[in-house]
Design brief:
Distance between the termini of chain B: 62 Å
Shape of chain A: globular
Number of helices of chain A: 9
Number of helices of chain B: 8
Strand content of chain B: under 5%
Strand content of chain A: 25-35%
CATH topology of chain B: MetI-like fold
CATH class of chain B: Mainly Alpha
Radius of gyration of chain A: 18 Å
Number of strands of chain A: 10
Largest sheet of chain B: none
Largest sheet of chain A: 6 strands, mixed
Structural class of chain B: mainly alpha
Low-confidence stretches of chain B: none
Oligomer: heterodimer
Strand order of the largest sheet of chain A: 6-7-8-3-9-10
Number of strands of chain B: 0
CATH architecture of chain B: Orthogonal Bundle
Helix content of chain B: over 70%
Shape of chain B: elongated
């Protein structure tokens, strides 16, 4: 059974039909890169998986949990689905460690000591063992994004959604964030990335999903899709971004 | 006829100033509580209540405070509810300041990036947890300076309560002037006392504003 299964999902913003029957199955442990032009619906699709956006037709399952427009069910879902944002969205009034600790403490009701240890472990894992007490404003973009990844991991999600998480970073800081993702892949984490990092998608990703006009236009194993794009739309997209 | 020395004038004004300060405090606390409730209900996004909030704010911001005082004081009497000047003044000033404070606080909450809410949602925090641990600590920083600034408006607004016969600073000034026929001296002192109450608040608001800008 796939970990994430997206079934004929349609999404409208008023008159605007942004997702036109998207089908996608993601197995546990897979790393999926969603690529496509802006406006193709890739971020919207990602945000539908954890209920940040609602959809009008079709179904999405994570494990055996259906994604529904219901506060309580979405809160439960958030324990299996983590998300990292382009703009980090760290809590600026809390230190790196406090950012990581907040959800396990409040949502999972773990005690403070346990959460502190967890925060330390996770921040060490993303290479920020020396920044526990730093505030986001005193961290570089790459460091902030790594704190955000640690914050998501603190809820031990089954799948991590990454929404253009390197797009707001200076070029020299992209590598440190991608390195963390590679590490996660090795540990068997399921990753769904909306990304502009074509090299990363090709080298680290298992599968590529090319979205165009609200549909999954072309999909396949990463190396094949990049080496041998089938549709003219993907060919032209790749020729522009490369 | 009794003679008023300068000290008598000042003493009486000071005694009346207590009521100005007390009325301001009550209005600020009452308005703050009502404003807080409105703000919480509004940000919880009960869509059906939104029209109510908008109308509420528009009415209390769009009608002069003096008319609100008249309506509470005379209007409620017409309906058979007897209100004294003190109750009417507190009631009107509370409603008036709640509308403004609600607007100030709502805008501070809305000024926070949407991503803060989204991050909390994806982490599974409830609405109450999100407000308490993420939104309010950040919004408070922004809200303090304009809130203190608005308290100056409340202090000055209490002067209108003199018209429905509530004896505070302005009313005491009018009465002393009637007795002494020294309007310049009396109202000069009244103005000075208002200034002495309001100026520290303005300075505090400015200080808090600069402090927050520096730490951002």
């Amino acid at each position: 059974m796939p970990l994430v299964s997206i079934d004929k999902v349609h999404k409208y913003y008023g008159e605007n039909h942004v997702l036109k029957g998207v089908d996608l199955k993601v197995e546990a442990g897979e790393v999926i890169s969603i690529i496509g032009r802006s406006g193709s619906g890739k971020s919207t699709l990602l945000r539908c998986i954890n209920g940040l956006e609602s959809f009008q037709e079709g179904a999405i399952y994570v494990g055996n949990q259906a994604v529904e427009d219901d506060e309580l069910k979405l809160r439960l879902l958030s324990r299996s689905v983590g998300m990292v944002f382009q703009s980090f969205n760290l809590f600026p009034h809390k230190t790196a460690a406090e950012n990581v600790m907040l959800a396990p403490q409040l949502v999972l009701k773990k005690d403070a000591e346990e959460c502190k240890a967890l925060a330390k472990k996770l921040l060490e894992k993303v290479g920020l063992g020396d920044k526990l007490d730093a505030y986001p404003a005193n961290l570089s973009g790459g460091q902030q994004q790594r704190v955000a990844i640690a914050r998501s991991l603190a809820m031990s999600p089954k799948v991590l959604l990454c929404d253009e998480i390197t797009s707001a970073l200076d070029p020299e800081l992209v590598g440190e964030v991608l390195h963390v993702l590679e590490q996660l892949k090795e540990e068997g984490m399921t990753l769904i990335l909306v990304t502009h990092e074509m090299n990363f998608a090709r080298d680290v990703g298992d599968r590529v999903v090319f979205m165009h006009q609200g549909k999954v236009w072309e999909t396949g194993a990463s190396d094949e899709v990049f080496a041998n794009p089938q549709t003219p739309e993907l060919q032209s997209f790749l020729s522009v971004v490369r | 006829m009794m003679q008023f020395t300068d000290w008598d004038i000042l003493r009486n004004l000071l005694l009346a100033a207590r009521w100005t300060i007390l009325l301001s405090l009550f209005a600020f606390i009452g308005g703050g509580l009502v404003g807080l409730i409105l703000t919480f209900l509004r940000s919880a996004k009960y869509a059906s209540l939104n029209v109510f909030f908008k109308v509420y704010v528009e009415i209390f911001q769009g009608v002069p405070l003096l008319m609100q005082l008249f309506l509470t004081f005379f209007g409620l009497s017409l309906l058979g509810i007897d209100v004294d000047a003190w109750t009417a003044a507190i009631l009107s000033l509370t409603l008036f300041s709640s509308a403004y404070l609600h607007e100030i606080w709502r805008s501070c909450i809305e000024a926070l990036p949407k991503g803060q809410w989204e991050a909390c949602r994806t982490l599974g925090l409830t609405y109450a947890q999100t407000m308490r641990h993420v939104i309010i600590p950040q919004a408070i920083k922004m809200a303090i300076a304009p809130t203190v600034g608005f308290s100056v408006q409340i202090v000055k607004g209490t002067a209108l309560a003199s018209i429905i016969g509530f004896v505070e600073l302005t009313k005491a000034g009018t009465m002393l002037n009637n007795a002494t026929f020294e309007p310049f001296k009396v109202f000069g002192l009244v103005a000075l006392l208002y200034f002495i109450i309001c100026f520290p608040l303005s300075v505090l608001a400015r200080y808090l504003e600069n402090k927050n800008h520096a730490t951002r």
